[in-house]
Amino acid sequence: MNKSLNIIHGEHRAIAAMMHGLRQIVAGIEAGRMKPDFVLFRAMIEYIDKVPEKVHHPKEDEYLFARLRQRCAEALPAIEALEAEHRLGDARIRALEAAMLQYERAGEAGFAAFKAAVDEYVEAEWKHMNKEEHEVFPLAEKHLTGEDWAAIDAAFLSNENPWKGAAGEYEQLFSKIVNIAPAPVGLGPG
């Protein structure tokens, strides 16, 4: 697999880990094993907002999708669908935040709506990442040139580690999440 695709795949794993953790905590609350931790929810949603929405998706659009659009007509329907999903990303994050705030204000009465918002967001992101990895990546590997990959690699190599960020900007946030999230999601009290 190409360097850029490996980086994107690593970013997908980081995003998936955060979404899986969020879903596990919500399931624990639903089962009565956990209590809501709104500091943790805010941190997890902040990570989801900053990494995929501000770093990951814009680079996919500007570099990978733009180059593939020029080289492979077969990829256009998938690219257009993925770009449309990227444009909805901010609204989906704001809906998740609003559901979390309503849950915090309403207490237990707000849980069902928050759970529904988490489920909706996570399901949409899983489908989105799978479409990228199973439809777009193979077409990119087949149709992009060495020059295309050089430009894409230059952009994505600057992302470095999705757990830390290029300048370490996510490391503190990720460490905070790991330290306050209860097991099996993190190291916090459970």
UniProtKB/TrEMBL annotation:
Organism, by scientific name, is: Thauera sinica
Q: Which residues form the Hemerythrin-like domain?
A: 5-140
State the name under which the record lists this protein: Hemerythrin domain-containing protein
PANTHER family membership: BLL2471 PROTEIN-RELATED, HEMERYTHRIN-LIKE DOMAIN-CONTAINING PROTEIN
Chain ranges passing through the membrane: none
UniProt cross-references to InterPro entries, sorted A to Z = Hemerythrin-like (IPR012312)
Do you know which CDD domains this protein is assigned to?
A: Hr-like
